[in-house]
Design brief:
This is PKD domain-containing protein. With 232 residues, the chain is mainly beta. It is 6% helix and 44% strand. The chain is built from 2 helices and 14 strands. The strands form 3 sheets. Strands 7, 9, 10, 11, 13 and 14 form a 6-stranded mixed β-sheet that branches. The longest helix has 10 residues.
């Protein structure tokens, strides 16, 4: 690349050459808020840290912020954009709630008896881990997603946090409590249960790395009653 006074490399440790500004530009991480003057009222493009080497231009050896609509010629794509593209390919979604008593008409649990909660369908899309990559212009970012926990809002004002997908109930377990994820109701009623799975995506590529938090929620409605009412 040629500047008005000398020939310079197309890239350096400071980024990629921007001929119009006579500087090397690198995407700011993180990006400043849109209220920052560097955006000039815009909400598209990106803000770069621009470094003008000593001996280039009338005012050299300076650094400043610069907004650009598109990356400098030859510059790598934004790795965060590629990371989110990789995540989109994972098709992540909420678990399907498994719970006893079952969330169907005619199924009534007994207050004071253990309630079991679990993910009916733990797998790559509902629990992980899952790894995907996305590429552009010869650059690649790889992302790995893994669920960290399920927070169960039981509908009675309590929450239960389980660090695994839970244990499916079987009739052979009888009145035992769940060894991994359970709750006990103390009052009869109809309860709307919400299970929110919290994920962390870790990504790396193009010399950068980061994390993306995600969460997905499923709901179910169960009924709890008293033993004497059920037996009458």
């Amino acid at each position: 690349m040629t500047s008005p006074t000398k020939e310079v490399p197309c890239s350096s440790s400071d980024g990629w050459w921007v001929q119009s500004q006579q500087c090397y530009a690198e995407v700011l991480q993180p990006q400043p808020p849109f209220s920052d003057p560097a955006w000039g009222g815009r909400t598209t493009g990106q803000v770069y840290a621009c470094t003008r080497p000593v001996g280039i231009g009338p005012v050299s050896g300076i650094a400043f912020w610069l907004w650009l609509a598109t990356p400098p010629n030859g510059a790598p794509p934004d790795p965060q954009v590629l990371a989110r593209q990789a995540v989109a390919r994972m098709n992540l979604r909420a678990i399907s709630i498994g719970i006893v008593p079952e969330p169907r008409a005619g199924s009534v649990g007994i207050i004071g008896m253990p309630t079991w909660m679990w993910a009916q369908n733990p797998g790559a899309t509902t629990w992980g881990p899952q790894t995907q990559s996305a590429s552009a212009d010869g650059f690649t970012v790889t992302a790995t997603a893994k669920a960290q926990r399920i927070v169960w809002a039981m509908g009675d004002g309590t929450t239960v946090t389980c660090t695994g997908p839970g244990t499916p109930y079987d009739d052979s377990y009888g009145k035992q409590s769940s060894p991994t994820c359970g709750h006990t109701y103390s009052r009869q009623g109809v309860y709307r249960v919400r299970a929110t799975t919290y994920w962390v995506v870790t990504w790396a590529g193009i010399g950068l790395s980061g994390t993306i938090p995600l969460d997905f929620t499923d709901t179910a409605t169960i009924t709890m009653g008293e033993a004497q009412v059920l037996s009458s």
